[in-house]
Every structure is written in C-alpha cells, then in structure tokens.
Specification:
It contains 10 helices and 14 strands. It is of the alpha/beta class and about 325 residues long. The termini are far apart.
Length: about 325
C-alpha cells in the first residue's frame, strides 16, 4: 500500500498544474441580449460558409453581437493562421472591455500549440466565458489550471445551436442558474439514452472534454489537478484500441484512481474497420477501466461530436447522480 501511494503521488506530480494564485478568481459576467462576443479560431482553419457565416448566423440568433478576430478567417497550412496570430486574437478578446464572452468557431487541431503564447495574467484579470469543444478542450483544461473561473464545454460557434444546446447555454450563461443537466427527458428528446455504469452520487470539479486532447496534455503544466474531479470525456473517429490506449495512459499516470466520478459522453464513429483491431467494443473498454474504480459513472451522456449536445460548466463544481444520469451545477458560474 505504501508503495502504491508513492507511485500515485509521483504520477500526480507529473500531471498537476502550477498552483493558482491565492486570490480567488472573479466569475465571468452573465450574458445579456445585445452583448458583444468575440469569435476566434484557435485551432483549424474555418471556411466562410461552413464556419464564419454559420457562426454569425447562430450568434446573431442568440441576440448577441459577434465580433470576429482579425485572424478568424486566416489560413496557415491546416491552421487558422500562425500560432502567434491565433494567440493574438484570443489575447485581444480578453483584453477588450467591450467583449463579454469568447466563442471558438471550430475545433480540429492547434489550440494546444498556443497555450505558451497566451497572456494568462490578462485572461485571469478579465474573466469571460469561453465556449467551445473538441480541440478547444486544450483551452478549457488550461483555463481550469491557470485562471480559476469556469468555461463552457458546448457547441462551437459554427455548430448547430438547437434546443438542448441553446437552453442549457442560456441557463448557464444568461440566467446564472444552477441547472440539472441530462437525465431521462433530455435522452428522450435527443434519442441518445445514457446508461449507468456504477450507481451513486459524487461531487467534484467537472474537468476533461475530448479524450484525445486530454491525453495530449498529460505530463504538461497545462493540465489542472484532477484530484476529486468528475471526469468528462468524449471523442470521435477513435478505434476501440486507441480509446483503450488513452484510458491506459490515464491509469498509468494515476489520474483514474484520483477521480470522484466519470461521465463518458458520445464516442462518435468509434468502431474500428480493421479486422486486426476488432474484438472489444468501447463499452467493454469502459467496463475494464471504470468498473474497478468503484465510483459513480455513466456513459452515453449528451456531450460530444453530436448535434444538439448539452452545454456543460467545465471547471465548476457539480454533483453527478449516476442513477438519474444527471449533472447538477452546485453554484452559478457567472456573476
């Protein structure tokens, strides 16, 4: 037992981020109709029709005023501009007093590349909700490690903002509510039933996002302390053996043993078409890694690369009810 604790302590040192400043972070302001929001492209390049135009359509429909970063439409290889350009747009958004929140146009790849270039002092001093998912996970995790205020793991600006996505965003960001998210009614509305892997309730900070991006940040100073967290995971286009490999990385790093609960969302197109790697399903992989933890856990939650996903309060304290398959926010994330 002593040896095992020593190993876990060593692993924790690898994944823990530098301590947050002692002064508690202020909460971001709640949104209101007519507010100006920044639209940035921190990762892959965004096209006009399938990216910037769609973002303008959906944000205007929310009664918000989108302000596009100067480099939102840039292209550098497969990225939305150079690392310096993408970081500059995000830094400018947090320095601009007229901007009330920040939306990512899309994910893809590239957000992790700009983490060392962000002005973390300015970002922490000017709390604003960051909204997005997929590759934006790198920003969510870094914000949780460096700023102390919550962000929203939900649709990107160019995603389809349908009923469940919009209503959960409204309750979190506009109404300053403490909603119960998920459960039977949402499952019926979306046609995506979740399932309980292990029953019970757990409280902790909701941390995680895209499994691939989370694994990319392992062993770096950009990962927040996962002690007592409710781990949120989702992914797309990852074969079962790759999901297995990433869970094993979390186990070897000592992350899984430190969690209070697990919320596995949608794993879209996660079935291998390679005969050599067939044999286990994602559900069996989850059973292998999650069941031995003995903590409340659910799978199939309405989060991930699917239409009408829920907006979720990343970095905030929540209560997971694994039997009801819900997450309850314990205090508002906006002031």
């Amino acid at each position: 037992m002593i040896a095992r604790r020593g190993l876990l302590a060593g692993a924790a040192a690898l994944v823990a981020s530098p301590a947050l400043p002692r002064t508690p972070a202020r909460k971001p302001p709640r949104l209101a109709p007519g507010d100006t929001v920044a639209v940035v492209a921190p990762a892959s390049a965004a096209g006009r029709e399938d990216g910037l135009d769609r973002a303008e359509h959906w944000l205007t429909g929310m009664s918000l005023v989108p302000r596009f970063g100067p480099n939102a439409g840039a292209r550098y290889g497969y990225l939305a501009g150079t690392d310096e350009q993408r970081a500059a747009d995000l830094n400018a958004a947090y320095a601009d007093p007229d901007v009330k929140a920040v939306f990512a146009v899309r994910g893809g790849w590239g957000a992790a590349r700009i983490l060392p270039l962000l002005d973390w002092k300015t970002i922490r001093a000017n709390p604003k909700l960051l909204v997005g998912y997929s590759d934006v996970t790198a920003l969510h995790l870094a914000f949780a490690a460096r700023t102390g205020f919550a962000t929203i793991h939900g649709g990107n600006a160019a995603s389809g903002w349908y009923r469940e996505s919009w209503e959960s965003l409204w309750r979190l960001a506009f109404a300053a509510d403490t909603p119960v998210l998920g459960g039977a009614a949402v499952e019926a509305a979306t046609g995506r039933p979740a399932r309980t892997l292990a029953g019970g309730t757990a409280r902790g900070r909701l941390l995680g996002g895209n499994l691939t991006i989370l694994s990319t940040l392992m062993g770096t100073p950009w990962l927040p302390d996962m002690e007592g967290a409710v781990l949120l995971l989702e992914d797309i286009n990852e074969a079962e053996y790759r999901v297995d490999r990433m869970f094993q990385q979390l186990r070897l790093a000592g992350v899984l043993e430190r969690l209070a609960g697990v919320v596995f969302g949608q794993c879209t197109r996660c079935a291998s078409d390679e005969p050599a790697y067939a044999g286990f399903t994602v559900e069996q992989v989850l059973e292998h890694y999650v069941a031995p933890l003995g903590i409340p856990a659910i799978a199939g939650f309405d989060s991930g690369h699917v239409a009408n996903q829920l907006s979720l309060p990343h970095g905030a304290r929540v209560e997971l009810d694994a039997d009801a398959r819900t997450l309850r926010l314990l205090e508002p994330i906006v002031s």
